[in-house]
Amino acid sequence: MSSEPRPQRLLSLDALRGFDMFWIIGGDWLLETVVKRWPNPGFEVLALQFTSHCEWEGFRFYDAIFPLFLFIIGATLPYSIGRRLEQGASRKEILKKVCARFCWLTFFGLLINGLPRLEGWEHLRLFGVLQRQAFGYVAAALIYLYTKPKTQLALIPTILLAYWALLAWVPVPGFPRGTYTPDGNVANYVDRLVLLPGQLYKPYGDPEGPLSNLPSIATALIGLLAGTYLKHSTDPEAKKVRRLAGVGAALLTLGWLWHPLLPVVKKIWTSSFVCVAGGLSLVLLALFYYILDVKKWRWGSIVWVIIGMNAITAYMGAAIIPFDEIAMKFLEGVARLHPENKELCRSFGSMFFTLLALWGLYKKDVFLRV
Description:
Pfam families: DUF5009 (PF16401). The protein is mainly alpha-helical. It is built from 14 helices and two strands; from the N terminus they run E-H-H-H-H-H-H-H-H-H-H-H-H-H-H-E.
């Protein structure tokens, strides 16, 4: 892990990463407490999109948070690894750093999953959010280092169709082929085969289990191609926005057209889900790129940038540091005088102190990277 000065970056990618991470580090909780404090049926329906996953089939904005981060990991590769290649670094040198980052992210994921509790191998959840980010990152980085964009583009439908074939044709004992229920799909069946019961997130399987890592590579590759296009294309900026948004809309449409044959299910990362989430990610990137890098409307974007430039720090900090308890040390009196606002004080204070810590790192040019 290192501390390094602020490099030249595409502002829209940093801001989009920060916007995405905001919901992970407590933005969802803050919105939930606001809705509970001032109930409103219309607002509650809207807030559900930003605070809750679909139980199984379907899609809400909150289901896009995880794949959006993986998409951004892919989109930054032409700027991070690409810059090192342009500076003359060898693929062997870069590969060492890629492997080191994979190990760090996996280790951080195990820490969050309970490794310090020392409850034994049979109770340690081996897969998780950061582990999938690590897998998607190393796969996309290797593909970027050793293939051309045409190959990368061809790999996306190849991966998605191959995963669909596995889900549709590999039999699960006790279920007909092509079953997509929690117990009857092959991805969760593989989880139950290779993992111990105490290592599973749910009795029926793990939403970040080994087989569903395969389509997550396609998510990262969609981001990789978007980042390559933004960096290397000579198209006018306005045309870049239109193309990103157009491809995003096409992927969204494809995903929902696919849905009757292969349901959109985040918890097993179905190929149709990759299309829907990837399409939305492209549309969001087009929007942020248009606002921040084309029109250069920067007001308010500093909040997203502060989070986005220290994304892993924000994620780990929110998981380990009790910012809500710290906040209540300062807001205890307000919460006592206005008990109806206690939960709101806790969620707002937690977000405030999280942002304060990240702002301090940003002002000191301290960016912790793995």
